[in-house]
Amino acid sequence: MDLTVNEFIEQYKKQFQSLYAYPVEEGTDEQHYSALAQFIKNHLSTYWKDTRERYLDNSAKQVYYFSMEFLPGRQLRNNTYNLGLLDVVKEGLDELGLSLDTIEEAEVDPALGNGGLGRLASCFMDSLASLSIPGNGNGIRYRYGLFRQKFVDGYQVEVPENWLRNRNIWETRNTKSTCTVRFGGNVWLEKNQQGYMETKYEDTLNVLAVPYDTPMVGYQNNTINNLRLWSAEIPVEEEDQYPTLESREPISEITQVLYPDDSNYEGQLLRLKQEYFMVSAGVQSILRHFRKYNVPRKNLPDKVAIHINDTHPALVIPELMRLLMDDEHLSWEQAWEITHKTCSYTNHTILREALEKWPVDMMKSLLPRIYMIIEEINRRFVEQMLPLYGERITWQTAILQNGVVNMAHLAVIGSHSVNGVAKLHTEILMEDVLKDFFEIYPERFNNKTNGITQRRWIHLANPGLTKLLDNKIGEQWKRNPSELKVFKGFERDKETLEQLAAIKLKNKKELADYIEKVKNVKVNPEAIFDVQIKRLHAYKRQHLNVLHILHRYLEIKRNPKADYVPRVFIFGAKAAPSYTYAKQIIKVINSIADLVNNDPDIGDLLKVVFFENYGVSLAEKIIPAADVSEQISLASMEASGTSNMKLMANGALTLATLDGANVEIKDFVGEENLFVFGLTSKEVYELKGRQDYNARALYEGQDKIHAVLNALTDGTVPGLQGEGHALFDSLVQYNDEYFVLKDFESYVTAQEDIDTLYRNQPEWLRKSLLNIAASAPFSADYTIKRYADDIWKVKQHSSNGFAVTILDEPLA
Ligand code: 26V
Hints:
Elements: H1 5-20, H2 29-57, E1 62-66, H3 76-82, H4 86-95, H5 100-104, H6 116-130, E2 135-140, E3 145-152, E4 155-161, E5 172-173, E6 179-183, E7 186-191, E8 197-202, E9 205-217, E10 224-233, H7 245-252, H8 269-291, H9 300-303, E11 304-309, H10 316-327, H11 332-342, E12 343-346, E13 357-359, H12 360-366, H13 368-397, E14 400-401, E15 404-406, H14 407-413, E16 417-420, H15 423-433, H16 435-440, E17 445-447, H17 454-460, H18 463-473, H19 494-519, E18 528-533, H20 542-558, E19 567-572, H21 580-597, E20 606-611, H22 616-622, E21 628-631, H23 643-649, E22 653-656, H24 662-669, E23 675-676, H25 681-690, H26 695-701, H27 703-713, H28 723-733, H29 740-759, H30 761-773, H31 780-792
The structure holds ligand 26V.
């Protein structure tokens, strides 16, 4: 987009004045943010409209990514950059005496997701637009996002996240495209005068679904896709029936708040309402749009792909069946053919407690028609499978089991494709979690290793590194990530390594300043910055990290004169409010931080920083400054991980178990360029099978373990109210299911290897460079291209004359 600095300044001044009726010099940061965001939104609106028309003119097949969660991050800088306006805007603001860095801090970071699953959805939206693939997001516009986390006396306290307090400039309320979603009541089938079976409803709760559309801006390609988030309102014609605020509650609560449980599922009626609300509104809106294509209904799968992001939107399957049969009068067979050709499903977790199962009674009373359809899908499935596979497999794969609806089974049966999110994870799905389905439908299973958008996580988060790459290997890598491998050629180039070191140090200094500002802790930027940022969960094993920190502390106290490499351990993590153990771990980390940060014997050698309220914006500050990336889940538990990819791409060295995508990271960068420790997934399965894990024996028999566990419980760590004992009990008394103590020894050794390597700066830098060069395969552009080619069968539809991202094979 062409715009000169002077034109920008003129237009921006006008924009500001028209909004606030006084000159720019008098504006607050918040006002400048609003004015600038509005300016950018005005600029992109033409492309947004053109993109929609381009897809329709080309009769393009479109994909709809259904997800209960999106974590888009701040959008001002991202959109400005992707429109090609960043330099002009920065320069213009500069001339006006303003700074984008300050202004952008006024933007709220919408926390409409829990963690990896939601952030992946947003990386995918960015790649879809950047590849000019007709891709739409479909989700919920939660009035309150994921809670804001505060620490009080080291304990997590949750505060509501009122992210819509100020107007959300990016969204457009689209009242033209509302639809109605029905809950409860009675449903029956009745033959009408034309001889069709007609579905009749009475006493239903009717909810108006109002879409809010947000532009998803492609990288300098004139493409702008749509993220559609639904909000629940009272139907206009029923306003009178809801005279009091209280009477409106059952409707407004549907999109009131995001569920804060990550991988710890508790059956909740409201959650089921949210899922159906989003699904029904989304599918209705797709069918309405599809009519514009003017092709027979049976061709729906040629024009539409619906993706089910984890099981949360799996009701898409019965809902599409319902609409095709009840509204479009197709037969069961016709509707089923269309539905399963249209839908595809990604599994994101193997944690049993996170696999959704709804009580039949709940489903029946909340969604009577949907339940009828699920029952029939199940009946037909069982009827077909019994003679082919016998009793055991049939009942183990059925949708209805012991009074619950198994949502993963519904998703697999109703989709043409089922994928995991890393090679190892997909193998585990095929060999364990969904083994019986793999026997029935082997052709449906495929792997799609996750990826991240380099635009947000390198270009914008790490401008220093971006410039270095541009200088050394040219700018091609920005459109063709595989070019990053060219950087490998500089592994022995002294000048490049020195520049890389300088960039890292600058990023670390900035983070150190920020740490001092928000945590009041002074850290040494020359220390190793060791980072673990992810949801707090026992399987991710933040407590393994904690035990090592305590071990290090005891070592320094015992032998203060030895030669240590200074380390700053950095954490960012939210715990589900109901997850007591995770919250206890938070308290322990904070208490250890109090201990080591204030111990004069320790000084710079050891610091612990636990940031509050971890989210996308904080990740953008931490990741470019990281030296070490902690990816230490028990092998087999982490489906993929994506912070591992972001950290690697920013030159951090990975300290990893062979879990999730760590396995592929190791394969690409080479075993000698990261630190692997701990049990392999195979060993974990064997150990579980043998049932002979004995944590107490490790505690009794190994001195290091003995010492750190005692330190947790003997008053060494101040301020604990039993949390140290809770950890001890879980690890020893209850024979910890995540085998923390089993991996402890090899983890400590790997940590020592890190110190040794860090002392050899040229070698460290060389490995850091190799990690950056090997990060290309984890670009979400590749992941999305594979989804598009293999699963969705959607094509790129670029705007005439615009460069398309080139996707060479990253390994070639
Ligand atoms: C479950 C539930 C249960 C109901 C309440 C809300 C809720 C929210 C999330 C979940 C499951 C989350 C699954 C998830 O986030 N999986 C992560 O997906 C990432 C992207 O594929 C992957 O990198 C992580 O390894 C995986 O843990």
